[in-house]
Design brief:
Arc Repressor Mutant, subunit A; two-stranded antiparallel ribbon; elongated; HTH-GbsR_regulator; WH-like_DNA-bd_sf; DNA-binding
């Protein structure tokens, strides 16, 4: 009996940790508990089974599973003879990470890059058109900092490309499940 308790405790510890970190995906801890439960059950489950296991309302369960589907972290599966929808975890955490974070990185990087390039042009115009030495120097200082930022965003785009092309796995070890 003692070992059963250790197994349950180990499972619960990981589920709680996953739940607390789901904010990285922009979702609530309760959705993390749904994900963790599906992960450890290692079998497709219905909303009713999840509701019973987690003691959550069916509405909350449905909303949580829908969010996980949208994040591409779970999938709906079919089983012969089963009339209710079944859901299971997509087990490729590496691809889940790539799908979620590269999209966010790319969007944020592009927004910052666009703003930096536009500001660079404005600063170059200000430097060329001003007679005020102090304004010109401040613009040059800003231009230097923005040039550095643009170099960083271009580098970050290369990192994102490594993930999206999966070439990152040529540089790191990972385990295929």
């Amino acid at each position: 009996m003692h070992n059963e308790g250790l197994v349950a405790q180990a499972r619960e510890r990981v589920i709680e940790s996953v739940a607390r970190n789901m904010h990285l995906y922009g979702v609530s801890p309760s959705i993390g508990r749904i994900y963790g439960t599906l992960y450890f059950e290692n079998r497709p489950m219905t909303l009713d089974e999840l509701k019973e296991e987690l003691e959550m309302s069916k509405t909350s369960m449905s909303t949580g599973v829908r969010t996980l589907l949208e994040l591409n972290m779970v999938e709906k599966v079919w089983r012969k003879g089963e009339r209710k929808d079944l859901y299971q975890v997509k087990n490729d955490w590496y691809q889940n990470f790539i799908d979620r974070f590269t999209t966010q990185w790319r969007k944020g990087t592009q927004m910052n890059l666009d703003a930096s390039v536009k500001s660079m042009r404005d600063l170059e115009t200000a430097i060329a058109d001003t007679d005020d030495e102090e304004t010109a120097q401040r613009a040059k200082d800003h231009l230097e900092r923005i040039t550095y930022a643009i170099e960083y965003y271009n580098w970050l785009n290369q990192v994102i490309d490594l993930f999206e092309s999966r070439k990152i796995f040529d540089l790191t070890e990972h385990k295929e499940e």
